[in-house]
Amino acid sequence: MRCAVPIFLLALLSTACNAAPGRNALAGTYTSNDGCVLEFKPSGKVYFSGCYAGSYAYDYEVDGDRIIIHESGNGIVYRMLPNGTIQGGGMEGILKKKP
User: Fold this and answer.
1) Which fold has domain 21-97?
2) How many angstroms from the chain centroid is the CA of residue 96?
3) Separation between Cα atoms, residue 1 and residue 18, nearest integer Å
């Protein structure tokens, strides 16, 4: 009986860690139908291009299914949807990961 608790906790932690995308799972290039491009790096940087004049780099963090991009002191929140697309934030609409 003593062993059941640690095994249960290990299973619970494993499930929690796999449920939310981390920086490594998020890493890659995402595009919208409007030509916006967001390139997420595992280092915590995201690069915007195509949808605004110029190209911009910001820091980001992952909190569960939320992706928070720190732009000019504000936190722009995106959501990672179950199908792997990203939604929300600004005018970008739905962003799909490039293969």
Assistant:
1) Lipocalin (2.40.128)
2) 12
3) 27
